[in-house]
Amino acid sequence: MNASTAKKPSAKTSSRLGAGRLKPDVVAFKRSRILEAASSLFYMQGYEATTLDMIAERLHVTKPFLYSYFRNKSDILASICELGIRESLVALDASADVPGNSVDRLRTTLAKVAEIIVDRHAYIIVYQREMMNLDRVDAQRTLRQRAEFDLRLARLVAACQEEGFVTIEDATAMSPWMGGLLSWIPSYYRPGGKRPREEIVESAVHACMRMIGLG
Which of 25, 81, 88, 94 has the smallest count of CB within 10 Å of its CB? Predict the structure, then answer.
């Protein structure tokens, strides 16, 4: 096959190849911009009513640009739904570096997770509203990540038990309920609302700690 008859790559393939040559931090930045625009549109008018054309228009780019970083609209939704969970898992991983005792580590980590949920307000709302629109594989992966969050949180609670700060026998079983309580933060917090960010975070952490007998 000579050069004149060789099949040319499609615009979508060319875009993917172009993105593959970019530095990882540049790719991450552009993916982040797409997720910000998409999460805002999904939040305001819903996933089904939002098109890739709308996302591209908001970013002042072409639709092939979006395909450089995401397979389709469902892939964008999956990334939005996973972002808060992945950042929360990172916060849980970092708990070992928190100075102090097990209670200090638990309280500080809960505060970090609460701050992530506040800061990712639109992402969390989209996740809660639109998870049923995820592809089966993406939905299962997200659920596994959520289960991993509960498991790691339970380990922090178990450490409080081992050090004698928590005496409730089934305290580790409270971890899914603590995670559920944190997930309700977007129902009480709105950017620019009357209740400040710090108050919401403090209240959520206090409620979680009380669930295992700590003030």
Answer: 25
Residue 115 pLDDT exceeds 80: yes
Cα separation of 103 and 88, whole Å? 18
Q: Encode burial over 80-115: b for 16+ CB neighbours within 10 A, e otherwise.
A: bbbbbbebbbebbeebeebeeebbebbbbbbbbbbb
What's the CA angle centered on 183, arms 95 and 73, to 5 degrees?
Answer: 105
Instruction: Say if CB 152 and CB 92 are below 8 A apart.
Output: yes
Q: Is 155 within 8 Å of 214 (Cβ atoms)?
A: no
- Reported pTM: 0.84
Name the residue type at position 108: T
